[in-house]
Design goal:
Number of helices: 2
Shape: globular
Order of helices and strands: HHEEEEEEEEE
Radius of gyration: 19 Å
Largest sheet: 5 strands, mixed
Helix content: 10-25%
Strand order of the largest sheet: 1-9-3-4-7
Structural class: alpha+beta
Strand content: 35-45%
Number of strands: 9
Length: 144
């Protein structure tokens, strides 16, 4: 009886520690430079494409400039710059958000931003691969 109570207590404590370590709230500095959070949560292993429409949290197009797409997992952080230009071409770069379950995926990697220089009204596609199921944040930032 005492052993099961102790085991239950240890499991509860360890679960609390793991939950705290994995939840990793954004720091005030991170929050200040996050233009938009595209994904936040648990995702299965595989390959992904996520479209960013060039808008911020307030659903307004961002001003021209350099932005960074950041893929943050508990194991790795990757980021890539992208150049945003004012206006649009009248045709979107939209490729549907895509997920392909890929049990052969072994690396977690922010693969590319396509195109990496684009007109804000056209948007861009962000490709990444997860080597394992993991919690992640995929965000657009205005500072490296």
């Amino acid at each position: 009886m005492l052993r099961s109570i102790i085991n239950g207590f240890l499991i509860a404590v360890l679960t609390g520690i793991l939950w705290t370590a994995c939840s990793d709230p954004l720091s005030e500095e991170d929050e200040k430079h996050t233009v938009l959070m595209l994904i936040e949560g648990s995702m299965p292993q595989g390959s992904y494409v996520k479209f960013w429409n060039g808008k911020n949290k307030e659903d307004q197009y961002v001003p021209a400039g350099t932005y960074w797409v950041r893929l943050y997992t508990t194991e790795f952080t990757f980021q890539q710059p992208m150049k945003v230009l004012d206006g649009g071409t009248g045709r979107s770069n939209f490729a549907e958000d895509f997920y392909e379950g890929d049990p052969a995926a072994t690396l977690t990697l922010l693969e590319s931003v396509e195109p990496d220089t684009f007109y804000v009204e056209d948007g861009t596609n962000i490709r990444f691969t997860l080597g394992t199921a993991t919690s992640l944040r995929l965000s657009i930032r205005d500072k490296e």
